[in-house]
Amino acid sequence: MKENKQRSDCPIAYSLDYLGDKWMLLILRDLIFTNKSSYGEFLTSEEKIATNVLANRLKVLEENGFIKSAVSPEKKNKYIYSLTEKGIDLIPVVIELMIWGSKYNPPGAKEVVEKLKKDKEGTINLLREKLLQRIEKDALVN
Predict the structure, then answer these.
(1) Quick one: how many helices (H) and strands (E) in the chain?
(2) Cβ(4)–Cβ(18) below 8 Å
(3) CB atoms within 10 A of CB 9
(4) What is the CATH number of domain 11-141?
(5) Could you give the angle at which helices 91-104 and 22-33 cross, rounded to 10 degrees?
(6) Cβ atoms 78, 38 nearer than 8 A
(7) Ramachandran angles phi, psi of 39, nearest 5°
(8) Running DSSP on this structure, what letter comes out for residue 71?
């Protein structure tokens, strides 16, 4: 497993220890902007993450409190992943990366980027509320 060790007290270094890996950000993207929540669904993403890399990154994200897993109610050998509050707090970071990327590579995520241009704060709040409600719903089920 890829172990993250804190290299210094610098907040940027800390952030990069967890978010400096493209796969971590893409998994977070899928949890924030799509209905993907299972291992198999993450594998269908356009970027084609390798199975061993996906398993590792999910484990690191969970061990460090960004996501949590639960056994699927429909299929006992399937795990469902969701963001924790710590993960939800990354929404503005992921959105800023999306806006920056759309400026220099405009083809993707046009609809979301347009919403963000019109009302960034409102869009962030809607996403945050939706994901927090999912956490509350999951807590009631478990």
Answers:
(1) 7, 2
(2) yes
(3) 7
(4) 1.10.10.10
(5) 100
(6) yes
(7) -50, -50
(8) E
Distances from the Cα of 126 to the Cα of 81, 90, 130, 132, angstroms: 20, 14, 6, 10
Q: What is the pLDDT of residues 13-41, one digit of tens each?
A: 988 888 889 999 999 999 999 989 999 99
- What is d(CA 129, CA 97) in angstroms, rounded to the nearest whole number? 20
Do 57 and 27 contact (CB within 8 A), yes or no?
A: yes
Pull the structure tokens for residue 69: 């897993």
Per-residue pLDDT of the chain (142 residues; tens, 9 = 90+): 455 566 788 988 988 888 889 999 999 999 999 989 999 999 999 999 999 999 999 999 999 999 999 998 889 889 999 999 999 999 999 999 988 888 888 777 778 888 888 999 999 999 999 999 888 877 776 6
Residue 68 structure tokens: 């949590």
Domain boundaries, the chain: 11-141
